[in-house]
Amino acid sequence: MTITNALNKIDLKYILIILIAVFFSTLFHELAHWSMGEILGNKMTASLNSANTISGEFKHEWNRNFITAAGPIFTILQAIAVFFLLNKYPKKELFPFLLFPFAMRFWAGLANLLGPNDEGRLGLSLGIGLLTISFIVCCFLFFLVYKSSKKHHFTLKFNLISFLFCSVFLIALSFINEYFKIRII
After folding, report:
1. Most exposed of 9, 32, 109, 181 (fewest Cβ within 10 Å)?
2. Which keywords, in A-to-Z order, does the entry hold (predicted)?
3. CA 87 to CA 120: how far, in whole Å?
4. Per-residue pLDDT tens for 8-61?
């Protein structure tokens, strides 16, 4: 087996790492919203797939954009950090922590068409449209995934299968969160 084939092998261990990446990346994304809200003096609650003020209102209306931006900013910073970690320590086990931020923001961007979420709400609030920020964020995250994949010889097939697992696990997490009404804070 060549090195490229070994790097692109998707086994049970790698799939488990994707699951871990999805769970913790989503959890910390929501905790970023929650933390920003609390820092700004809003009483917040968070689940595995959302963070909101307990009262449904913000202490100050300007808090809305800061709280909304905190999750995507954390996700972007995670991707940047993992991109550089992958460059220093070329381990395929790190790759899901770079790929999932792209998958997460890609699906969130499409979900804006059903109702504005993070980047969509920010774009509308700033007067630049529903999909503008999502498009920019997705392009940037895709660029990081592309550069890393090219450098580490991750194939298109490896990327697509990994993206599929990220997507399935994200959907499962969302359904589990809705069905069991899981609150983390």
Report:
1. 181
2. Membrane, Transmembrane, Transmembrane helix
3. 32
4. 999 999 999 999 999 999 999 999 999 999 999 999 999 999 999 999 999 999
Query: Rounded CA gap, 151 and 121, in Å?
Result: 35
* 47 residue type, one letter: S
The three-state secondary structure class of 112 is coil
Condensed to tens digits (0 to 9), the pLDDT of residues 116-130 reads 999 999 999 999 999
Q: Write out the DSSP string of 33-75.
A: HHHHHHHTT--EEEBSS-EEESSSS-SSTTHHHHHHHHHHHHH
Question: Which among 5, 2, 18 has a CA at the least distance from the CA of 162?
Answer: 18
Query: How far is residue 98's CA from residue 76's CA, in Å, rounded to a whole number?
Result: 9
Count Cα neighbours of 96 within 13 Å in the Cβ-side half-sphere: 25
The amino acid occupying position 72 is P
Distance between CA 170 and CA 74 in Å, rounded?
17
Question: Can you tell me whether residue 126 is helix, strand or coil?
Answer: helix
Is residue 101 within 8 Å of residue 25, measured between CB atoms? yes
Residues in the chain: 185
Distance CA 145, CA 168 (A): 19
| pTM attached to this predicted model | 0.96
